[in-house]
Design brief:
The protein is α/β, with parallel strands linked by helices. Helices cover about 35% and strands about 25% of the residues. The strands form 3 sheets. The protein has a 6-stranded parallel sheet, sandwiched between helices. It has a 6-stranded mixed sheet with strand order 8-10-9-7-11-12. Strands 14-15-13-16 form a 4-stranded antiparallel sheet. The N and C termini lie far apart (about 70 Å). The structure holds L-homoserine.
Length: about 425
């Protein structure tokens, strides 16, 4: 029987996540993994650990032959890529939590894994404590996975919960998310959807074998949501969430986007509050399954890193099954979305670019409409990101067979139903 590998770890980063991992490892001696050295940028700062543990020289870790695992939890994506690629080339297995780095360098990272034969694991990089990558990788066959819909950013979900349920203002809510260690050092990455779309980029690889850059995916954050939108949501008995969604279309391609969305109360994502994340997977025979857990924070993130470290003991690697053993899917541009849009000034709304508009509520002050628009239009246009316009998807927003819907609508109009 093969014995479990002894793990000697070099850790990069000792912030919220790095220190969390250090503490968690101290509480799990059975894992037989020890941190030999920690590399930090700010060497002068006082740390909760013995001084001999720390260095500012990355080569103290990368060139140490004793160290067989590099764990990298820093927030500088360029530095993280240098560390990860050097570590793999130096024959070390790597565990990383750097979402932005992974999303931006996936093709290169795949090649490095193939060249070196080393493991590169990053379960903590998406949905922190929820084992979503390993589940997508190991369990769901490409053909069976109809859709995946998720809340993948803890900070924005925390902010929405605090604003809409506890009446805090945006600044107060963001400050609390920062104090709790949920937010990125630059919180715009959370608020404007960059962090969510980065995570979605590599989740799409594990779900469908799609290998795209984050810029190819339609996204926005919660920055434009208006107090009046919350009122509309309340009146409809719905929630507003930042939802990452991917759905297989009849043409075999995948519709994917990250946008605010109205979520009905019977949708499991409506249950996801504060820094929790949730993933709803719909497959051919199992119907819907729901994964739920903390998506940000020190120990929840450390727990996923710990699980990756543990998996290295039995030489676990991602096989990128959907890329290598199936016909990988492609992203589609040919679908339509049902959207709610609120605005102060109706003249900034290009009505002619909608397929149709089904509701227009003109009130004192803020107005809103509900209509159907092509993904292509939203992907290429900027008007919905400017001029105090707020765009939120309707529940079940994807419309793929537009002709059919149009005809149906026309017949309903003719019959006087609409
Ligand atoms: N800023 C991230 C979030 C941290 O709020 O989800 C976890 O990736």
């Amino acid at each position: 029987m093969e014995t479990h590998k002894q793990l000697t770890i070099g850790l990069f980063g000792f912030g919220v996540v790095g220190e969390g991992l250090y503490r968690v490892l101290q509480q799990t001696p059975s894992l037989n993994a020890r941190i030999k050295k920690v590399c930090i940028k700010n060497y002068g700062k006082k740390r909760n650990g013995p001084a001999s543990l720390f260095t500012a020289d990355k080569y103290d870790l990368l060139n140490d032959r004793d160290i067989n695992v590099i764990v990298e939890v820093i927030d500088d994506a360029d530095a993280a890529f240098t560390i990860v690629s050097t570590a793999l080339k130096n024959g070390k297995d790597v565990v990383s939590a750097s979402k932005k780095m992974i999303a931006g360098h996936l093709p290169e990272l795949l090649e490095l894994q193939q060249q070196t034969g080393r493991s590169f694991l990053y379960e903590s990089a998406a949905c922190a404590s929820i084992p979503v990558i390993r589940n997508l990788e190991e369990y769901y066959d490409n053909d069976l996975l109809h859709s995946i819909k998720a809340i993948v950013n803890g900070s924005t979900n925390f902010i929405l919960t605090k604003i809409f349920e506890e009446g805090l203002d945006f600044k107060q809510a963001l400050l609390l998310a920062q104090q709790a260690g949920f937010a990125e050092r630059n919180p715009q990455l959370d608020v404007e959807g960059y962090d969510a779309v980065n995570k979605w980029t590599f989740l799409l690889t594990h779900a469908y074998g799609i290998m795209e850059r984050p810029a190819s995916i339609l996204f926005s954050g919660i920055q434009h949501i208006h107090a009046a939108d919350a009122e509309v949501a309340r009146a409809k008995r719905q929630e507003i969430k930042l939802v990452a969604q991917a759905q297989k279309l009849k043409n075999g391609k995948v519709a994917a986007f990250v946008l605010p969305q109205f979520v009905k109360q019977d949708d499991p994502l409506a249950l996801v509050k504060n820094e929790y994340n949730g993933v709803v997977i719909e497959s051919a025979f199992a119907d819907k399954q729901f994964f739920y857990g903390k998506g940000a924070g020190s120990f929840p993130t450390a727990s996923a890193i710990l699980s990756d470290i543990s998996a290295l003991r039995y030489h676990y690697k991602y096989e990128y099954k959907k890329l290598n053993h199936h016909l990988p899917h492609e992203l589609s541009n040919d679908f339509f979305l049902r959207v709610y849009i609120s605005f102060d000034d109706a003249s900034v709304i290009p009505r002619e670019r909608f397929e149709w508009i089904e509701e227009w509520h003109a009130r004192e002050g803020r107005e809103y409409l509900v209509g159907v628009i092509s993904h292509r239009e939203l992907k290429s246009a900027e008007w919905w990101k400017e001029n105090n316009v707020s765009l939120i998807l309707a529940p079940d927003p994807v419309i793929e067979d537009l002709e059919l819907r149009k005809l149906k609508r026309k017949s309903l109009e003719l019959a006087g139903v609409l």
